[in-house]
Structure formats: C-alpha cells, structure tokens
Design brief:
The complex is a heterodimer of chains A (260) and B (233). Chain A is of the alpha/beta class and 260 residues long. Helices cover 36% and strands 24% of the residues of chain A. Chain A is built from nine helices and twelve strands. Chain A has helices spanning 45-52, 85-92, 110-120, 126-139, 155-167, 185-200, 212-218, 236-241, 246-255; strands spanning 7-16, 19-29, 34-38, 60-65, 68-69, 72-73, 81-82, 95-98, 173-177, 205-208, 221-226, 229-234. In chain A, the strands form three sheets. In chain A, strands 8-9-10-3-11-12 form a six-stranded mixed sheet, with helices on both faces. A four-stranded antiparallel sheet of chain A has the order 2-1-4-5, covered by helices on one side. In chain A, strands 6-7 form a two-stranded antiparallel ribbon. In chain A, a hairpin with a 7-residue loop joins strand 6 (72-73) and strand 7 (81-82). In chain A, helix 3 runs parallel beside helix 5 (155-167). The longest helix of chain A is centred in the C-terminal third of the chain and has 16 residues, at 185-200. Chain B has 233 residues and is mainly α. Chain B is built from eleven helices and no strands. Chain B has helices at residues 3-9, 12-16, 18-50, 55-69, 73-82, 84-92, 100-126, 129-137, 142-172, 184-195, 198-229. The chains are: A alpha/beta (260), B mainly alpha (233). The A-B interface holds A 53, 55, 85-86, 89-93, 95-97, 99, 101, 103-107, 116-117, 120-121, 149, 151-152, 162, 165-166, 169 and B 128, 130-131, 133-142, 144, 148-149, 152-153, 156, 230-233.
Chain lengths: 260, 233
C-alpha cells in the first residue's frame, strides 16, 4: 500500500472566533475505500468534511488531494502562499459533496441541476452532458424524474438527485455530510441503498453519518471524533465490537441499532 | 345630474382626438420601457454593491439608494432636464443640452433604480447560502454562481413586488409632460387649449391609464404566478 492517498488531511485545525472546533486532525483515505466519520453533535465531523473541499478554510494544517495541497501553492518553501480561489475551484471538481439539506437549485429541473456544472465548469457540450446526466440519474434510480422540478420530489428523491449532481462531476471522492439526517426514516433506506451501491462500485467515499448500521456494514474504516480530535479509529468490525475508549463505548451504546 | 358633471363625463371629444392621444400614450410606453431598463440595470448594480464584502462599496450602494429613493420623481425629472445640463456644461466648458425624452428617462430611471435596488437586495439575501455552497462545491466561480444560481432565483422572488413598481413607474410617466415630452398628458393639455374642455379629456385620460394598467398588470401577474408555481410548490 505505497500508493498515494487520494485524500490526506494533515494536522487540520479550525477555529471559529474563540472556539476551536478541530484541534489537529490527520488521516488518509485511499482510492476505493469508504470511511465513515461518526461522533456526537459538535464533535467537529461536519466542519472537517467542509474543510476537505474548502467550504471552510482550515485555520492551520492542510488537505492534500492526490498529493496536491488544497490550501497552499508553491510547495513547502518560502514560495508557499494561500491557494487562489480559481485554483481551489478547479480542485473542487474532484470532490463531490452531498449536503444534509440536499441544496438542489429550485429553479432548475432535476436534469438541469445535474448537468449545470458539467456544462459550465467542465465545458462539456450540452448533448454529452445530457447523456452523462441521464446516466447519473439512472445510477440513483431517478431516470424518469429528469424533467421534474425539485419541489415536486420527496426528500429521499431530492437527496438522490443531489448525489447524481455530485457524481456528474466524476469526482475522485464523494463526501457525504449527514445525508440522511433530514429525512423521514422510511426515506432513509432509499438513500442509504444508493450509497451502498456506490460503495460496491468502488467509489471513494467519506461519510459523516449517524447511521451506525450503515457505518458498520459499508465502511472500510470508521473514525470516531470527539471534541475536535479523532478519538478512535479502525476497522468497523473491530472498533464496534471492542471499543477502547469509554466515550466511544458510551456513544455506541446510545446509537447502535441492530444492523439491518 | 348637473350639466357640468355631464360634460365632464362625456368623453366623445377624447374619442375625436384618439389618433394623437394614442400617439401620446405610445410615448408614455417608450419612456416607461427605457426608464424600466435603466432602473433595473442600475438597481441591480446598486444591490450588488450593497451586498459586497467591501465596506466602501456597500456604502456607495447605500448612498445611491437613499439619494434616489428619497427624491420626488417630479423634482428629479425637472432637475435632470434643467440643472444637470448646466453642471455638465460647466465641467466640459461647452453648452450642453439634454433631449426631453432623455431627461425623462434618466430622471425616472434613477429614482426607480433606488426602489429596484432594494427589491434586488431583498431577493439576493433570500437565496439560501447553501445553494451558493452547492455551486462552490461543484467548482463554480463566484460570477457563475451569481448569474446561474442567485439571479435566476432573485428574479422569480422579486416578480410580485416588481410588478407593483412597474405600475407606479408607468403612472409616474404622466409627469414627463412637464418638460415637454409629448406624452398622453401633454397631448391632453394641447387639445385643451384648442377645445377649452379640459374635464372630459382628463376623464378620458384617467380611463385610458386605468385600462392599460389593469390589463398589463393582471396579465403580468398571471404569467409570473404560472412561472413561479413550478418552483415554489
């Protein structure tokens, strides 16, 4: 496993005013692996995910995407400068993110949402983009909804469109920020089902979630965050059955439901 | 019914002069359309200044809104036509004049740009930051996000209020006769001088404005509702 990690976080700190939300987090995610981040509210897991695609700028530390620094340019020497926004935007194409609240653009159709960035950002021809968009919608089983507006869809369907929108950029990594937290329980499964299929297809994924069953079943690795630090991490089979820290033990006993 | 009231309501004289009056109404429409384009363009610019992250630019935007929103349109039109050319002439050391039509459009356009700026700003602030973040996360530039994600939503959100502002802008075009723009009211006063019967002419003008605004306003409202319903289900 000498391969370059797809994502590498190096000592990421994030401070909002006087509150330090991330206190030095480092980890690696390799191609094709699925990493789940779990932890209580306020543990910093969503902030960490948002740092990975620079929606939040880390106060210190860095994110490397295939070895390339997201936050800085000019190597490590005296030429080192914060990376300009245009370059960050270029690197963001490789990082698809799916939000808790879907965040679809309401004035565009489902297909319009999916093909917007491929056309405007990647410069695809409209025809190509439509073919790509339809393929992405088929992957989330919503091919027949292409011409609907988001307001006409259920929450679960909207979230699947959001997944298709992120997939359409053909990113190296898919980031999920509590993708099922604002869904009714009966709609959660359709979204988790799609995510499971993506994982089985070899998609590299980082998933912030409260779904312990999903984390245990689908992830290659689980990270438990507490107070802005990774408190415990490991293979799901190991850390769920033999938690080392007392806090993680308590967290599991509160959240773990029998795997479906 | 008194005789004078009967005369005032007898609009046959208005009908008699329909060709020239209609030409006047067309001038109202031209002034309205040109002023609306100006007001929307400058209003958008001022709104973008007001939501800018640089304080100095925000301040300029606020100044613009406060100056023009608080200026009576009547005075603005007269001032632009008579005072502004003197100022410009003083600066360029040459005699300078504005065509009445141009003065009318500038005066009304700037006053209404103050109102439209506030409507735009409210619309921009109502677009959830999350929609913008979704754009950023796809690698969209801030300019692309503005034109493709923010403004299309702003336009839909501000439609109902804009229709009201378009209506008051159209009504405000009745004052351009002050600086001799040959609009409907201008023609009415010209004909009055010949016929010496102002009241039926004013009644006719009132009915004409009422009909035009009612028809155009309700048509626009119906269109905008149909367009919005798809999105805000």
């Amino acid at each position: 496993m000498s391969e370059q990690p797809t994502i590498r976080a190096v000592d990421v700190h994030k401070r909002f005013g006087t509150i330090e939300v991330l206190k030095g987090v480092s980890f690696e995610v390799h191609r094709g692996s699925v990493v789940s981040m779990i932890g209580a509210s306020g543990s910093g897991k969503s902030t960490l995910l948002r740092c990975i695609n620079h929606l939040e700028t880390p106060t210190s530390g860095d994110i490397l995407i295939d070895g390339e620094s997201l936050c800085f340019r000019g190597g490590t020497g005296s030429e080192r400068r914060p990376r300009p926004l245009a370059e960050i935007n270029r690197m963001r194409r490789d990082l698809g993110i799916v939000f808790q609240q879907f965040n679809l653009w309401p004035h565009m159709t489902v297909l319009g949402n999916v093909i917007e960035a491929p056309i405007r950002v990647r410069g695809l021809a409209r025809k190509e983009a439509i073919a790509l968009g339809e393929a992405c919608l088929a992957r989330v089983h919503l091919g027949e909804k292409a011409i609907e507006y988001p307001a006409r869809l259920s929450g679960g369907q909207q979230q699947r469109v959001a997944i298709a929108r992120a997939l359409a950029m053909q990113p190296k990594v898919m980031l999920f920020d509590e993708p099922t937290s604002s869904l009714d329980p009966e709609l959660t499964d359709e979204v988790l089902g799609v995510m499971r299929e993506l994982a089985n297809d070899g998609t590299t994924m980082i998933v912030v979630t409260h779904e312990m069953g999903f984390a245990r079943e689908v992830s290659d690795r689980v990270m438990f965050l507490h107070n802005g630090l990774i408190e415990e991490e490991g293979l799901p089979a190991e850390i769920f059955s033999a938690p080392k820290s007392e806090r993680f033990r308590q967290f599991i006993s509160k959240h773990l439901r029998p795997a479906s | 019914m008194s005789e004078s009231l009967q005369q005032a309501l007898d609009v046959s004289v208005f009908w008699e002069y329909r060709t020239v009056l209609l030409r006047g109404l067309a001038v109202n429409v031209y002034v309205f359309a040109a002023a609306a384009v100006l007001a929307l363009g400058i209003g958008l610019g001022a709104a973008l200044l007001r939501v800018n992250r640089f304080r100095a630019l925000r301040w300029i935007g606020t100044l613009h809104v406060e100056i023009f929103r608080n200026a009576p349109d009547y005075i603005m039109v007269v001032w632009v036509h008579f005072v502004l050319p003197l100022l410009i002439g003083y600066v360029i050391h040459r005699r300078f004049e504005l065509h009445p039509f141009v003065s009318a459009v500038i005066g009304l356009g700037f006053v209404y740009s103050g109102y439209f700026a506030e409507t735009f700003r409210a619309g921009i602030e109502a677009v959830p930051i999350a929609h913008i973040e979704a754009g950023r996360s796809c690698g969209m530039s801030e300019r692309l996000i503005l034109w493709r994600i923010v403004l299309p939503q702003v336009v839909r959100r501000m439609l109902p209020e804009s229709i009201n502002q378009f209506i008051s802008l159209f009504k405000a075009t009745t004052i351009v006769s002050l600086i001799a723009v040959p609009d409907l009211m201008y023609q009415v006063s010209m004909i009055t001088q010949q016929e010496m019967r102002p009241l039926p002419l004013y009644t006719g003008a009132a009915l004409t404005y009422f009909a035009v605004i009612l028809l155009a306003g309700s048509g626009l409202r119906a269109l905008s509702e149909r367009w919005r319903r798809k999105i805000y289900a």
